[in-house]
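Reply to dn_fold:

You asked what the input looked like. This is it:
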Amino acid sequence: MTLLDRIAPAILPENRPPVLKTERLVLRAPRLDDAPALVPLIGDRRVAENLSRVPHPYSLKDAETFLASANRNDEQVSFVVTLHDGTLVGGCGVGPFMGEHPEIGYWYGVPHWGRGYATEAARALIDYAFNDRGYEALEGGARVTNPASRRVLENCGYVWTGVILLPVRALGGVSVPADRFRLDRERWLAHVETSARYPINRS
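and this is what came back:
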């Protein structure tokens, strides 16, 4: 019997985030049956080593533990990101991490890199964080060896604030340099007025 088998549907979180739909993507709350699709994507070392809290190797039990705990408190909001046909391509979320303000985070499976999904989903997530959650500022970060993630934040209007050392679980807790970024509500509103904005639908 797995962890998922022991969780009754009645005790699943009721206050799930809304479904956010963009031109190509759907951001929705994680479901228990996402585990088999989640493992090979986030379990790829190239993904895990760019995230601070994800273990490597990443097991089915790790996925089940995450899915069982996702969105069980109001501070941390987690989404999985799928294509419109339901194919799971990654995940994202917003909540407290290490700074004064909430932080967005995201990851995508290697087969889905280089297609603009991260920026498209991040814009929807940021819009949700400012408009639905009422945040005044957001933080973000990326390893200095991950320029693609840095570009996502910059494409969304984030401003670089410095470099810190960040422990990475997949690397055995070794600390690595990471760029830090910040985005204020006012800057976001100005940014979306002057850039191509993906339409976002909520359901």
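Residues 17-196 form a domain with the Aminopeptidase fold (CATH 3.40.630.30).
Hope that clears it up.
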